[in-house]
């Protein structure tokens, strides 16, 4: 056990938030984890501001599919000593990459021009808005240190990876840990 608490931050990109929900399924073991680690930022609490000094462990859920997500991924990489790709969408692209097969131009036309809910009949082009990109796994944008697959990864696997890292060990993910049982 380390004397100084390990700092951990998490964020999400394109996905469904199910991986973060699985994180919460760690349940009472979160109490053990909190004794070893300090959570500095997470999208599911009010803690949304990672320290400018960076964190020991960064966790990213979801694929990168627009310019805003790309910026989040790069910032988390810059600020994290160890970066975890959490869940299938982050590990290999998962469900968000299904849209890569279609034509984004057609999808935007259907959503903004042909849809009955259209406000002004044009595709928004405000440069402040995130620009759509082909959906990509995290490691096509930044270097990843630990892959935690699953849709979502089981809580036991998430707990194993996090406790290993906060104790300074290399996670050893087994098929049993990645199985839902
Ligand atoms: S891996 Fe599954 S649970 Fe996690 S964000 Fe993607 S679709 Fe959701």
Sheet with the most strands, sense and barrel status:
5 strands, parallel
- CATH-derived architecture: 3-Layer(aba) Sandwich
Helix count, per DSSP? 7
| Helix/strand class | alpha/beta
Task: Detail the poorly predicted runs.
Answer: none
Q: How are the strands ordered across the major sheet?
A: 2-1-3-5-7
Gross morphology is elongated
Q: What is the N-to-C order of secondary-structure elements (H for helix, E for strand)?
A: EHHEEEHEHHEEHH
Determine Rg (CA atoms, Å).
18 Å
What's the mean pLDDT score? 88
Number of strands: 7
| First-residue to last-residue Cα separation | 29 Å
CATH topology: Rossmann fold
Q: Any idea what the CATH superfamily is called? A: NADH:ubiquinone oxidoreductase-like, 20kDa subunit
Strand content: 15-25%
Task: Report the top-level CATH class.
Answer: Alpha Beta
List all distinct small molecules, including ions and cofactors, that are bound in this structure.
Answer: iron/sulfur cluster
Helix content: 25-40%
Query: What's the number of domains?
Result: 1
Explain what this protein looks like in three dimensions:
The chain is of the alpha/beta class and 181 residues long. The chain has one domain (6-99, 135-170): NADH:ubiquinone oxidoreductase-like, 20kDa subunit (Rossmann fold, 3-Layer(aba) Sandwich). The protein has helices at 18-24, 29-36, 67-79, 88-92, 104-114, 155-166, 175-178; strands at 6-12, 37-41, 55-61, 64-66, 80-86, 132-136, 146-148. Strands 2-1-3-5-7 form a five-stranded parallel beta sheet, sandwiched between helices. It has a two-stranded antiparallel ribbon with strand order 4-6. Helix 2 runs parallel beside helix 6. The two termini are 29 Å apart. The model has no long low-confidence stretch (mean pLDDT 88). The site of iron/sulfur cluster has 13 residues, from helix 1 and helix 4.
């Amino acid at each position: 056990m380390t004397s100084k608490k390990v700092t951990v931050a998490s964020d999400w990109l394109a996905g469904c938030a199910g991986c973060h929900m699985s994180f919460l399924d760690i349940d009472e073991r979160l109490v053990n984890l909190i004794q070893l680690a300090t959570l500095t930022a997470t999208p599911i609490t009010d803690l949304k501001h990672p320290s400018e000094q960076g964190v020991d462990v960064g966790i990213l859920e979801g694929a990168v599919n627009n310019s805003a997500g790309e910026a989040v991924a790069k910032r988390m990489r810059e600020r994290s000593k160890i970066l975890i790709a959490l869940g299938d969408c982050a590990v290999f692209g998962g469900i968000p990459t299904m849209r890569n097969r279609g034509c984004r131009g057609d999808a935007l036309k259907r959503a903004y021009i042909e849809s009955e809910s259209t406000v002004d009949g044009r595709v928004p082009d405000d440069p402040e808005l995130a620009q759509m990109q082909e959906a990509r796994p995290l490691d096509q944008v930044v270097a990843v240190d630990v892959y935690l697959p699953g849709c979502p990864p089981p809580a036991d696997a998430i707990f194993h990876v996090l406790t290993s890292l906060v104790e300074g060990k290399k996670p050893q993910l087994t098929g049993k840990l990645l199985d839902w049982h």
